[in-house]
Amino acid sequence: MKYVMEALRRKEEQERLPVIRMEIDYELATLYDAMQERDTVQIIKSKERLRQLRLQKVKIESDL
After folding, report:
1. Which secondary-structure segment (H or E) carries 18?
2. Is 38 strand, coil or helix?
3. What integer pLDDT is reported at residue 10 of this predicted model?
4. Can you tell me whether residue 21 is helix, strand or coil?
5. Is 24 exposed, middle or buried (0-12, 13-18, 19+ CB in 10 A)?
6. Whether the predicted model's global pTM rises above the 0.90 cut
7. Could you tell me the CA-to-CA distances from 35 to 20, 28, 40, 46, 56 in Å, in that order?
8. Measured on CA atoms in the order 30, 33, 37, 38, is the torsion positive or negative?
9. CA 50 to CA 28: how far, in whole Å?
10. What three-state secondary structure class fits 39?
């Protein structure tokens, strides 16, 4: 049973990777817009969100 649960968890993580990549692309576009507008608050928010997404992506990739 333990192996089945582990296999399901890995499958869910694999399916999550493309979603995380799309979120990173969107956040990069948001960061670019904020930089063009010199919106320092949004720049900080976007950078933090990108850090979180990168950590999620690295964690999933290292588990596979």
Report:
1. helix 2-37
2. coil
3. 85
4. helix
5. middle
6. no
7. 22, 10, 8, 10, 24
8. positive
9. 8
10. coil
pLDDT tens-digit map of 2-58: 888 888 888 888 899 999 999 999 999 999 999 999 999 999 999 999 999 999 999
| Backbone dihedral angles phi then psi of residue 38, each to the nearest 5 degrees | 55, 40
Residues 39, 41, 44, 47: what is their CA dihedral angle, to the nearest 10 degrees? -60
Cα gap 25→19, rounded to integer Å: 10
Structure tokens at 63: 């588990």
Closest by CA position to 48, among listed 38, 63, 34: 34
